[in-house]
Design a protein that fits this description.
Four Helix Bundle (Hemerythrin (Met), subunit A); mainly alpha; 2 domains; 3 strands; single chain; 226 residues
Amino acid sequence: MALAEDIRQLPLRPVGRESMQDRVYRQLVAMILDGELEPGRTVTIASIAQAFQVSAMPVREALHRLTAAKALTVVAGRSVGIPPLSVERLSDLRRVRVEVEGLAAEWAAAHVTPAMLARLDSRIQAMSACVATGDQGGFVPANREFHFTIYEAAGSASLLALIESLWLQIGPYLSLLRGSGNWRNANIQHQVLRDALARHDGKAARAALEADITDAAVILEGLLRG
């Protein structure tokens, strides 16, 4: 891919000088989680640096962290992309996510506030609108914000960091669920999860979260095998 074309496809996000490496890293994380770096696409250090308006050094350091976390992989030369997802790796991620994210949902039930419920409601409404229009660019970020609102409420920085590392590996593939019917079913499960949290019912919240993860994994497995 030519450098000029590569740059045009990246959102322009100038980065300030303070904590440069961390800021570049966080912006790349957001791009991966929000589906802006989809499977099958490659980008270069130079294109990211120019899009972010920074030097190559903080980009290179951020990409090193992301490749170490298995969120990105070196494709050729200085190009990186989303690692391929096998059925075996999907199954492993599902098993771990069910345990870790289910635990976070259960813990979050003890810390529910009206402001948190209002945020969850707004994300559910946003996802419903995206389902109606097939808006992938809107659904994926809203889905992430819904889930991480819950995970942050669990009150564990260690657990949150682990969950983010899992989402960096599976998040880019959630866009493949568009058109499968999963988005609509997932949002129904989101409502069940939200209602369980409103009742401070940790067990029910965990069950709803586990069902959401499992349903998506079953469809993704079918797509990968197909």
